[in-house]
Write a structure and sequence with these properties.
Layout lengths: L14 H5 L8 E9 L8 E9 L2 E6 L7 E12 L1 E6 L9 H10 L2 H18 L1 E6 L8 H10 L7 E4 L4 E2 L20 E2 L3 H13 L4 E5 L1 E6 L5 E5 L3 H13 L3 E6 L2 H10 L3 E4 L5 H10 L2 E3 L2 H13 L4 H19 L20 H8 L4 H7 L2 H6 L17 E5 L14 E4 L2 E4 L2
Helix pairs in contact: 5-6, 6-7, 9-10, 11-12
């Protein structure tokens, strides 16, 4: 799920502040919002003033305090900063397998990291003030350094939680298909056996991983009864060892699991989120709901990738789209927690990841539900619900705005024209 990128130039209001490591000062900023959606409920409010001091929201008011710096968003809807819980800033899209191979074989990790800084900036421009980046696809621990550069004010970008290298078993993950004597890189850390899996978890955490990611299945086919079948990668014992070790070290596990056995084994092992989940059996949905395991469906990327995979002789990817919609609707009915994730990097970063909002509404969510998936729900998945996800006093001033009413037309989420992260303005209308 990857492609290419060409570098463009965009203008950030407040870019110089980020480049020189400055942070939100003690001045008071007042955002005059025409519409205001706080990340809770199903409706917005009119004419709310958000008062910000430093990096946090001080209060919600009806008028700007005397002496404050007023930013007029009276024609916009203000919302919590958006959170994308499934990205790959080290990737530029891979609509065909050759695109992926080219990135790993012809681009150095250093060059890919330079491109990643551009993608981080793009994510922030799109309105995503926080992201969970789910592995570097062969670029080692570069995501840790990009995160560090953002935190230190060296480059602009969203808050990041990172998964570094991800885990898979021998023979299951690209690069594949080369002559046995030709040594090629892999997009993951290859591990076999419970003990090696535990060691890999420890290694990744020691080098800065916030999350552990596993690839739990591969090789998909649709059975006659409509169930999406797969070949599981890790044995149940290996998966349980990975989850146990990560949880023992107070880290969470995200599982790439698209079909029957990958999902089931992951749920039984106790992972914290199921990524993609094109097919999830009803019993596994019930278990996910009861245990609070999140579902991150990444709908748009499936549609994007299907065209390339079908051209390569794998039409199953087209069939998987309808299966995915049925699963999504069943997950909502079962009460499974759903968080917004796009797999950006699996598609070109020049495509706005906010397209996922329309995909989620097409699959059955209301606009308000889709927005909550990218705010309060996503903040909960990241363990940051106390500081992010809603607009209320005491929380970080991560705020975006769009023209018009996204609760009536969710596609407006693709038109973010104001971005504030931690009290610093990066984009104005």
């Amino acid at each position: 799920m990857r492609h290419r990128v060409t570098l463009g130039v965009s203008v950030f209001v407040g870019l110089s502040a980020c480049l020189f490591g400055q942070t939100a000062g003690s001045r008071t900023i007042a955002l005059r919002c025409g519409n205001f959606f706080d990340g809770r409920g199903d409706s917005s409010r009119k004419n709310v003033v958000v008062v910000i001091e430093g990096e946090k929201i001080k209060e919600l008011a009806t008028a700007a305090p005397a002496g404050s710096e007023v930013i007029d968003l009276s024609h916009q809807t203000c919302l919590p900063g958006l959170i994308d819980t499934h990205t790959h800033i080290l990737l530029q899209g891979d609509i065909t397998a050759a695109d992926y191979d080219e990135q790993l074989l012809k681009q150095s990790p250093e060059y890919r990291t330079i491109l990643a800084t551009v993608n981080a900036r793009r994510a922030l421009e799109y309105g995503f003030t926080s992201i969970r980046d789910l592995e570097t696809e062969g670029a080692g621990y570069a995501d840790v350094d990009v995160k560090k550069a953002i935190n230190n004010g060296v480059i602009p970008g969203p808050r990041m939680q990172v998964a570094t290298r991800a885990l898979d078993v021998t023979g299951a993950y690209p690069l594949q298909g080369y002559a046995p004597a030709v040594m090629v890189p892999h997009g993951v850390q290859v591990v076999d056996g419970p003990d090696n899996a535990r060691q890999a978890v420890r290694e990744q955490i020691s080098h800065g991983a916030d999350w552990i990611k596993v690839y739990s299945d591969r090789s998909y086919r649709v059975q006659e009864d409509g169930v999406l079948d797969d070949i599981p990668t890790f044995t149940p014992e290996e998966l349980k060892a990975i989850v146990d070790e990560a949880h023992r070290e107070r880290h969470k596990v995200a599982s790439h699991a698209m079909a029957l056995y990958g999902v089931h084994n992951s749920v039984e092992a106790g992972v914290d989120s199921i990524e993609h989940g094109n097919y999830i059996a009803d019993d596994d949905l019930k278990t996910m709901a009861s245990r609070g395991i999140f579902y991150v469906p990444t709908i748009y990327v499936g549609e994007y990738v299907a065209q390339g995979r079908a051209a390569e002789g794998a039409p199953v990817w087209v069939k998987m789209i309808q299966i995915h919609e049925d699963t999504f609707r069943r997950a909502m009915k079962a009460g499974v927690k759903i968080a917004f994730g796009t797999d950006a990097g699996g598609f070109d970063w020049k495509i706005n990841p906010a397209k996922e909002f329309s995909s989620m509404v097409k699959f059955g969510m209301t606009p308000a539900q889709a927005i909550r998936a990218a705010t309060i729900n996503a903040a909960e998945l990241l363990g940051m619900k106390d500081s992010l996800g809603t607009l209320e006093a005491g929380k970080l001033a991560d705020i975006v705005a769009v023209p018009g009413d996204p609760l009536a037309d969710v596609s407006l989420m693709e038109k973010v024209d104001f971005v504030m992260k931690g009290g610093v303005v990066f984009r104005k209308p």
